[in-house]
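Predict the assembly for these two chains.
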Amino acid sequence: MSLFSAMSVKREDVLKDENLIKNIEEIAKDAALLHGVLMRTKETPNSPEVVSYAPFTLFPTPVPKALFYQALAVQTHFNRLVDRVSQNAAFLEETLASTIKVDSFTARLFNIYKQVQQENHPQSIVVGLNRSDYMLDHSPDGGTSLKQIEINTIAASFGGLASRTADVHRHILKVANLPEECKHVVDNNPAAGLARGLAKAWELYGSERDGHEVAIVYFRNGYMPQNYTSEQSWEARLMMERSLAVKCPDISTHLAGTKKVQQELARPGVLERFFPDEPETVAQIQATFAGLYTLDMGEEGDKTVAMALANPDQYVLKPQREGGGNNIYGNEICQVLENLKNSSERTAYILMDKIQPVPVQNYLLRPGAPLKLSSCLSEVGAFGAYVRFLFF
Amino acid sequence: MSLFSAMSVKREDVLKDENLIKNIEEIAKDAALLHGVLMRTKETPNSPEVVSYAPFTLFPTPVPKALFYQALAVQTHFNRLVDRVSQNAAFLEETLASTIKVDSFTARLFNIYKQVQQENHPQSIVVGLNRSDYMLDHSPDGGTSLKQIEINTIAASFGGLASRTADVHRHILKVANLPEECKHVVDNNPAAGLARGLAKAWELYGSERDGHEVAIVYFRNGYMPQNYTSEQSWEARLMMERSLAVKCPDISTHLAGTKKVQQELARPGVLERFFPDEPETVAQIQATFAGLYTLDMGEEGDKTVAMALANPDQYVLKPQREGGGNNIYGNEICQVLENLKNSSERTAYILMDKIQPVPVQNYLLRPGAPLKLSSCLSEVGAFGAYVRFLFF
């Protein structure tokens, strides 16, 4: 039952109707709170007593059906790819060699990786919970394709929030008198799959011992330098990697998710090494890659620098390290590369084709911020959960 | 999957296990927040941005199955009783005559009632959403019976919260390793019935006019003197009662829920006047009444005073007005009655048999308050929703 009119309307009309939007705003916030789209407050992040709603868009973002199912279909290939990469020591070592020279954080992770490898701790179970993020790339000829932005192999979040957002959007669309759109909101429950992955690993671990034995270590953080506040943090990470506990992820799967690995996988011929007898798998993964270009020292890297300086607007310059938020665009690319182009420090970055998404008009709801019509660039993320179990 | 042990335990053991309770506390708060058992915060009651959990007990309170179904079964009789009382002008006038002499708030409500009656506004639809509250009375012989505390005919709340609490308790019981208890938590969705009542009234009202016509006035407050902050509040109440809108409740249904009416209905022979041909209905309602005794001026009231002074611990002295919280017990009953026994002011109160519930040990969760094992006296409430529709 709609609040305001008996006739159904169009989204663009709703977006322009300021009074209607103002009315929907409070209903939307209440719906988010009631459906569990929650986060702790900035003021008291450690209090169990109060919560706010997690930032969300007032309306859902449309994704073409074919691309949505493509993201789901290719996800199992990505699960297998990440797992194979994580078990290929030579590949990881070779790929990350240049990164660890300039990125001390990745270097420390890599040292832990090497140490546990040498100590040969038996790791019979690994659980992977990852999220592959895409943008919809609009080519000048009018076509739309799925382009991977990154794959997160550690602390891939929002599975819980996403599971509860569909009902919030359905409620908002009903109130906004957009029943047709409401029908197109798909059910979404990644939390169930992630939980099944963890439960399966716990079951396989199968200890009957009661008390304080840890079956699974789930990393909610540990992917940014600031997560390691002291030497003790590093010692804790090493201790966990050495333990019998199932890691989600183990250090090799963590490293398999670095941007440098992602870039290496995009190079011609590399995917084929991981799927030698599966050209179809290779093609499906490859189809989601935007061009990635090395900045390693040498001829190929020099070519990348020249390409970026010539057309900076077509590229993104990305730090190799995880965590996001520090991408470099446009003229700033030229500034950074002019400075670093003859230094090995340039290898801390990779260059990537800039994806050309079409902005969608929407309202962003964020605690404490006034509602404002915004041009939004969205990503669509596909979750993957898998458990590797080796018999000894 | 239990957090702490593979073997199922008993609730009394869980209640004593301080470490376990401490662990469950945070899980319980998160579960309440995630399932929508929410309220605004004390600090920012008008902010749409933050919420806290509504106070709740860590574990559900057991209610004997037979009494639970008795409360549901008798509820339809109470719906009909309230509705018949609300339409019996002579009964309301006679019953409330002594109350309005001493209670200026009820007197003002009654004046509005008289005024709209005289003006004869056609009210074809009335929607009633009420909640009948009971305690479990344990008699010395070991029997347990349902005794009505009060019936709320205006702003009967907690239907929404109650609809979402069952899942919270199920989750807590699972985590506390009490799977058998978990199975006994019944589904509970009063919100759906209340919403159906409002929707039905809206449908019957049936206006095709778009825009600002009000179909239903739902009173969230208006039952306490402090809800009427100025003369304008009273004018607004009168305006609403005079309007064509469906009232939930109308002023006569509001008055039908006063404690004085409740007391009058408990007197011998009164229920029979409302259900002359339904001795079974009368018996079922009567069975839930604790003894209620008048303090009106005269012989009967004098007898009540003497009875209360002789055994104050067996009674509760209650103000006639709605809102609760000011009941008088024990020696204080003697103090109040010694003062008022020869004054007509005593008629602002009624005397009631004190119900003897058995306390249940439980933990109360309340934002900002430390968790503490408490002896809890609980009420069980049955919701009723009905729509009266008259053809003219």
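Chain A touches chain B at residues 1, 5-6, 25-26, 29-30, 33-36, 38, 41, 48-53, 199, 202, 208, 210, 367-368 (CB under 8 Å). Chain A is about 45% helix and 20% strand.
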